[in-house]
Design brief:
Structural class: alpha/beta
Radius of gyration: 36 Å
Low-confidence stretches: 264-295, 297-306
Number of strands: 14
Distance between the termini: 146 Å
Order of helices and strands: EHHHEEEEEEEEHEEHEHEEHH
Strand order of the largest sheet: 2-4-5-6-8-10-11-12-13-14
CATH topology: Leucine-rich repeat, LRR (right-handed beta-alpha superhelix)
Number of domains: 1
CATH superfamily: Ribonuclease Inhibitor
Shape: elongated
CATH architecture: Alpha-Beta Horseshoe
């Protein structure tokens, strides 16, 4: 098993060239960027001497657990995509972390990020999930990221519901392509809670086939600049906004007419120009109809008056 340790760092030609006359302990203490991607690493050992580490590259390895990073309180960027990580653990001390890359792992629940108050970007695309599984979000983690997270990538994770993400009010870029989003009203509602959203990608979701999908999202999220890789023309946006405003005004006017009793429920002909009582046919609607008998001719009796 390949474990990332100080000895492995010492033997790395890439880092040996950068020592520049420093002793190895001095070099480790001055180290800010550590590159160990694609090295078949399965575990992270004790590298706590690298206490000034700010960027750590560990993508394209075989790591199964996030561990032994408690020392890295200055870490701002952590690249661990394309490993075998199934749980987000042991990141509580990384309170300066700004960008976290965990795409291409085996994570089913986004959790354990409650103390990362400086996190700006979270990349979770293409998780290798079990059949029938979808990526879920711990509400506590979402609430903790509500005022910091600006970029979220959740592409291709079997997601069919994003209403819990509405709390992330600072989002500017959201990628949720190739999922299973199908509820147009829900997507509209969530986007309306992201006032700073500039760019989103929902391509590859069933919702994209809904009638006027693009028009509806442009009108509900007026800050949006790019939708599904296509720039939004300002002339088109203004036309759609005017159309929506006109439609809503007409709806309000119709509702007011109903409230004020101005709509007449029955059509009237010119024979009824004044307010009438109940229609004559309605007056006797409760009377049981009987069969009418033919009238007998009247018998006239002539009395002799002489």
């Amino acid at each position: 098993m390949v474990c990332l340790t100080l000895d492995v760092i010492a033997k790395s030609k890439n880092h040996f060239k950068k020592k520049r006359g420093l002793s190895f302990p001095e070099y480790l203490r001055a180290l800010t960027h550590l590159h160990f991607s694609g090295k078949s690493i399965e575990d992270i050992g004790d590298i706590s001497t690298c206490r000034n580490l700010t960027v750590l590259y560990l993508y394209d390895n075989l790591i199964t657990h996030i561990c032994n990073l408690d020392f890295a309180s200055n870490l701002t960027h952590l690249y661990m995509q394309n490993n075998n990580i199934s749980h987000i653990d042991n990141l509580f001390n990384l309170q300066k972390l700004s960008k976290l890359y965990l795409g291409g792992n085996r994570i089913a629940v986004v959790e354990g990020l409650e103390r990362l108050c400086e996190l700006k970007e979270l990349h979770l695309e293409n998780q290798r999930l079990a059949p029938g599984e979808k990526l879920l979000f711990d509400p506590r983690t979402l609430l903790s990221l509500a005022h910091s997270l600006c970029v979220l990538n959740i592409n291709n994770n079997n997601i069919d519901d994003i209403k819990d993400l509405a709390v992330l009010k600072e989002l500017q870029h959201v990628s949720a392509a190739d999922n299973k989003l199908n509820n147009m009203e829900e997507v509209e509602e969530v986007l309306s809670h992201w006032p700073l959203l500039l760019q989103t990608d929902l391509s590859g979701n069933p919702v994209c086939k809904r009638a006027k999908y693009r028009d509806r999202l442009i009108t509900v999220c007026t800050s949006l600049v790019i939708l599904d890789g296509r720039e939004i023309n300002e002339t088109t946006r203004q036309f759609l906004l005017n159309w929506k405003a006109s439609k809503e005004a007409k709806k309000i006017k119709n509702n007011q007419h109903v409230t004020n009793g101005q709509l007449i429920p029955y059509p009237f002909t010119s024979d009824f120009n004044t307010v009438q009582g109940p229609h004559p046919a309605h007056k006797y609607s409760h009377v049981k109809m009987q069969t009418l008998q033919p009238l007998r001719p009247a018998v006239i009796v002539h009395r002799d008056l002489s």
